[in-house]
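Below is a filled-in request sheet from our internal design queue. Each sheet records the structural input a requester submitted and the sequence that came back. We keep these sheets so that new team members can see what a complete request looks like end to end.

REQUESTER: design group, bay 2
PRIORITY: normal
MODE: inverse folding
CHAIN LENGTH: 483
BACKBONE (tokenized):
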């Protein structure tokens, strides 16, 4: 059945025509004026009736498709995807599940760390890949540090987005943060080899201080590459330098997420940053700055990267396109500090483990950065995430017995609960209901989840609005129960 909406547009107001159409259609769906499966008029027909350009209707339909209210299929009318009314425990319709991540089609997967990708399939994305594929194919492997063109564009991106001044020569392209950390772990070992030590002798294992709770994938890579971890329990603002200062034998490096502590969300204040740099200078340690989601700051301006305060050349800045585009690319980078010993160690390892990022991917990413597609994408998804973040705040900010945190930036939230038994039972019960979130205790770098508050961690970017709204209702319910 065709539903033809009645829409009155305000042409004098500050709200764009596409937003007004999206708001009207969204409320028609939520109020049940139009039902799941019903089709909408073509963008051309609706534009003609409203007397506006077709582009405004296309934008509104795209917006609602991305939020999960509409399903658009090539050659078929656009249809309404989901009605939220009715039994809150009904399985999510396949249209919602299909656009949430994961192989299980009924799952609403709120595993933290994943971005929204529905806006990536537009014309700029396709054009970048076409341009990359049309280039003459070199008969060599990509340069060890990555193509110069990509490194120039990454340096420009960092200057605009993070206030970091660096040059193409300072950058090493990596297959994401995990590969960057693997390089760094091996380079730390390399730098510990004393000048006189024969090549055949084993290198002493480097010790790396890590935040706990912290990023489990980082801890796994560092351990796998032979580093010994020194877990430091974080405070509300992030890594407390005082604990580093108290260590009888200081670590060789410290891994921090100063802009948005992962996963608890603290932001390391400037004086703590300076103190950390002073400590590192005093002990000749490396500072590994994982700057993974600073492009998405929702409250207050982002603090400058730690690397931009580093006058001593010892901060290794690690960045990734996993959050700003998608981890499907496996693309990231290291910005090497000025210190020659650090650069030499990193480049020595890169010579033995050459750049694993395909030249075609590097060319496409260069195009995306050069044409402004990355900048536009960040601006667009930032608006989507602000809206989703509001859904999270509306559902959980005044939820008795819990504390909602980590929402000042990034794409995930933490809901602290009263005790571990509640956290464990809630994660289990949510999975029974087809919703995946993660127990905060799994982020501990200490045995048995020690030194970590009880809570749930969930991402709000990758699911649809409707999937998220449904999941939030369940999260609220399962964390109200007594277990
Ligand atoms: C703390 C942190 N660092 C870095 C990343 C990005 O990792 P990668 O570039 O390996 O995908 C993530 C992604 O979830 C993260 O949570």
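RETURNED SEQUENCE:
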């Amino acid at each position: 059945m065709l539903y033809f909406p009645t829409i009155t547009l305000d042409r004098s107001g500050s709200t764009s025509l596409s937003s007004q159409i999206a708001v009207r259609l969204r409320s028609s769906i939520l109020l049940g004026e139009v039902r799941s499966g019903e089709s909408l008029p073509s963008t051309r027909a609706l534009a003609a009736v409203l007397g506006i350009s077709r582009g405004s209707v296309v934008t509104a339909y795209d917006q609602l498709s991305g939020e999960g209210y509409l399903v658009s299929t090539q050659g078929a009318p656009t249809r309404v995807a989901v009605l939220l009314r009715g039994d809150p425990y009904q399985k999510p319709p396949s249209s919602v599940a299909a656009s949430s991540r994961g192989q299980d089609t009924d799952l609403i997967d709120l595993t933290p760390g994943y971005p929204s990708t529905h806006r990536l399939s537009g014309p700029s994305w396709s054009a970048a890949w076409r341009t990359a594929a049309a280039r003459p194919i070199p008969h060599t492997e990509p340069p060890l540090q990555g193509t110069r063109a990509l490194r120039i564009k990454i340096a420009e991106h960092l200057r605009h987005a993070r206030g970091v001044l660096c040059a193409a020569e300072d950058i090493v392209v990596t297959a994401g943060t995990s590969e960057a950390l693997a390089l760094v772990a091996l380079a730390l070992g390399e730098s510990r080899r004393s000048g006189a030590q024969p090549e055949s002798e084993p290198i002493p294992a480097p010790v790396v201080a890590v935040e706990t709770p912290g990023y489990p994938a980082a801890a796994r890579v560092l351990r796998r590459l032979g580093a010994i971890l020194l877990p430091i329990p974080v405070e509300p603002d992030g890594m407390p330098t005082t604990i580093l200062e108290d260590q009888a034998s200081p670590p060789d490096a410290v891994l921090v997420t100063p802009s948005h502590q992962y996963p608890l969300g603290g932001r390391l204040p400037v004086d703590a940053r300076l103190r950390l740099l002073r400590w590192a200078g005093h002990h000749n340690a490396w500072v590994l700055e994982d700057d993974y989601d600073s492009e998405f700051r929702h409250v207050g301006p982002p603090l400058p990267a730690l690397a931009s305060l580093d006058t001593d050349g010892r901060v290794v800045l690690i960045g990734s396109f996993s959050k700003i585009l998608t981890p499907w690319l496996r693309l990231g980078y290291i910005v090497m500090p000025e210190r020659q010993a650090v650069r030499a160690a990193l480049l020595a390892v890169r010579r033995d483990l050459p750049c694993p990022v395909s030249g075609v991917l590097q060319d496409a990413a260069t195009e995306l950065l050069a044409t402004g597609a990355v900048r536009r994408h960040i601006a667009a998804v930032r608006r989507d995430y602000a809206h989703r973040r509001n859904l999270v705040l509306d559902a959980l900010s005044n939820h008795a017995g819990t504390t909602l945190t980590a929402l000042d930036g990034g794409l995930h939230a933490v809901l602290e609960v009263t005790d571990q038994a509640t956290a464990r039972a809630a994660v289990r019960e949510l999975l029974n209901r087809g919703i995946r979130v993660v127990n905060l205790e799994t982020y501990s770098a200490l045995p048995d989840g020690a030194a970590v508050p009880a809570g749930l961690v969930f991402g709000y970017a990758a699911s649809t609005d409707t999937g998220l709204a449904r999941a939030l209702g369940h999260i609220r319910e399962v964390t109200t129960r007594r277990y």
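SHEET NOTES:
- Residues 87-140+373-483 form a domain with the Aspartate Aminotransferase, domain 1 fold (CATH 3.90.1150.10).
- Confidence is low (pLDDT under 50) at residues 83-104.
FILED BY: M.R.
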